[in-house]
Amino acid sequence: MRCDCRRGPLVERRLREARIPPRYQRCDLENFVTYPNERLLKAIERAKKFAESFPACEKGLLLIGPPGIGKTHIAVSVLRQVIKATGAKALYYDTRELLKEIRSTYDSTSNRVELDVIGPVMEAELLVLDDLGAERMTDWVEETMSLIVNTRYNERRPTIFTSNWEDTPDEGDLNSLVVRVGFRLHSRLREMCEFLEYDGPDYRNLEPNSGAEDLYRLWKGRPRRTLPAKASGQMRAQLRGPRAPKHGEQLDLKWPGGRAGS
Q1: Which of 216, 232, 255, 220 is nearest to 175 (CA)?
Q2: Tens digit of each residue's pLDDT (9 = 90 or more) over 128-166
Q3: pLDDT tens for residues 81-110?
Q4: What does the H/E/C string look like for the chain?
Q5: Which of 100, 170, 185, 187 could anchor a disulfide with 181, C-beta 3.0 to 4.6 Å?
């Protein structure tokens, strides 16, 4: 083991290189406010166990739940604790920001190539990918994310994911995790991660100096929060303009609802 005099500067450098957003740079599992929520407490317990056992981790973590319940706080806390304890090369990325940076390398004026961005992501000893499934699924998104996840899986490098999309068994549910990330990636996630799904009140809506009792009261006093459902059922529309149908005729577009391209 490295002596403390060498590990100190290394840890500081690793923390700077981890790309942790300023808002989360002081996150810690010890300062995370909890309340009697069995699934939340289980997620905290598993996160602590993961951090303490790193790098001897059989599986990564996938934190699932509605926005504002502390998933990013927990994930970044584990990242910071691992860096402080081991000096590991760890990296944080919002999934949308990662895909945006990869796309930017395709610009002819860019000085970077795709491997400059994707290489460190695949090689990091610990990776946090925040907000998985937020990007609209396309062939390119699916192939890019599959490459990253499969490479890390094959190299046995632990990964922590967060996602707002529920892991429902209904493959026809447009709001399910399997639809948002694709069947192949979902299957791989099932094998490489422990799924930790919980709900709760939005921490961002709390008044200053609120505590565990306030959180518990909000959690019990409100219905379970989920992401807004997309439109369902077929919709009908009339075409107008030079190619409009005859008077009184309607054309059924057979659009199932939801966002275009979903």
Answers
A1: 232
A2: 999 999 998 899 999 999 999 999 999 999 999 999 999
A3: 999 999 999 999 999 999 999 999 998 888
A4: CCCHHHHHHHHHHHHHHCCCCHHHCCCCHHHCCCCCCHHHHHHHHHHHHHHHHCCCCCCEEEEECCCCCCHHHHHHHHHHHHHHHHCCCEEEEEHHHHHHHHHHCCCCCCCCCHHHHHHHHHHCCEEEEECCCCCCCCHHHHHHHHHHHHHHHHCCCCEEEEECCECCCCCCCCCEHHHHHCHHHHHHHHHHEEEEECCCCCHHHCCCCCCHHHHHHHHHHCCCCCCCCCCCCCEEECCCCCCCCCCCCCEEEEECCCCCCC
A5: 185
Residue pointed to by tokens 């008077």 = 247
Complete domains list, the chain, with CATH: 4-229 (3.40.50.300), 231-262 (no CATH)
Q: Does the N-terminal peptide bond of residue 67 adopt cis geometry, omega within 30 degrees of 0?
A: no
- Could you tell me the two tokens for 233? 């059922």
